[in-house]
Amino acid sequence: MTSAPRRPLKSVLTYDRDDSTRRLSIFCNAESHVGRPWLIDSFYWGDVGGQVSPRWLRAGHYYRGGLPIADLPKSSRTVLVGNRVLSEDELLEDRADSGSRGRYDFKCHLCALSMSRREEVVHAAFSKLANENVAEVTLSLLAAILK
Ligand SMILES: [Zn+2]
After folding, report:
1. Is residue 85 part of a domain?
2. Cα–Cα distance between 17 and 57 in angstroms, integer?
3. Dihedral of CA 84/85/89/95: which sign?
4. Ligand 1 center–CA 100 separation, angstroms
5. Ligand 1 centroid – CA 65 distance (Å)
6. 9: CA distance to ligand 1 center in Å?
7. Distance 30 CA to ligand 1 centre (A)
8. pLDDT digit string (tens) for 25-64?
9. Who has greater pLDDT, 104 or 80?
10. Across-strand partners of 134?
11. What φ, ψ does residue 5 adopt, rounded to 5°?
12. For residue 120, what are the domain limits?
């Protein structure tokens, strides 16, 4: 008995439909779980109805091809003051002042591949990828870009 090998997803997916919103989604498709991609996080370029200057914002749902395809339970972003991570309560109290900085901890829960980078570095990479019409990228490729 033979079974056809599962075709791996490409490490980069570009827009395949008309979507004026710039989006960047991150997934893991490592060899150890080919065919079972782990959806890590999803972002879009926006301004929350003009409340903030345009920036990369977390989508809350995983987007593929311009459509939300899955819920994302937890943010990959933490806020630090110095080397201390602020708690959820401190964030709600808006203790994230000018001395704070954002950090992303992207992690695949199937193969434990992970990457931690400062927010501004990650956002700059998102912008470069989006300018090349990339809408979705593997964590391993993003890690290689940010090396
Ligand atoms: Zn993985």
Report:
1. yes
2. 21
3. positive
4. 30
5. 21
6. 13
7. 5
8. 999 999 999 889 999 999 999 888 888 888 999 898 999 8
9. 104
10. 14
11. -65, 140
12. 13-145
Contact assessment for residue 131 and residue 56, using Cβ atoms and an 8 Å cutoff: no
- Please work out, in degrees rounded to the nearest 5, the angle formed at the alpha carbon of residue 129 by the alpha carbons of 145 and 58: 100
Indicate whether 19 belongs to any domain: yes
C-alpha distances in Å from residue 21, one per residue of 1, 32, 44: 46, 33, 7
What is the structure's pLDDT at 124?
A: 96
Asked if residue 53 is part of any domain, the answer here is yes
SS3 123: helix
Distant-in-sequence, close-in-space partners of 109: CB < 8 Å, separation ≥ 6 = 38
SS3 141: helix
Q: How much distance in Å is there from the Cα of 31 to the middle of ligand 1? A: 8
Q: How far is CA 102 from CA 12, 26, 50, 105, in A?
A: 25, 18, 21, 10
Residue 7 located in a structural domain: no
Average pLDDT rounded to a whole number, residues 66-74: 85
Indicate the average pLDDT of the chain: 83
Q: Model pTM?
A: 0.80
Domain count of the fold of the chain: 1
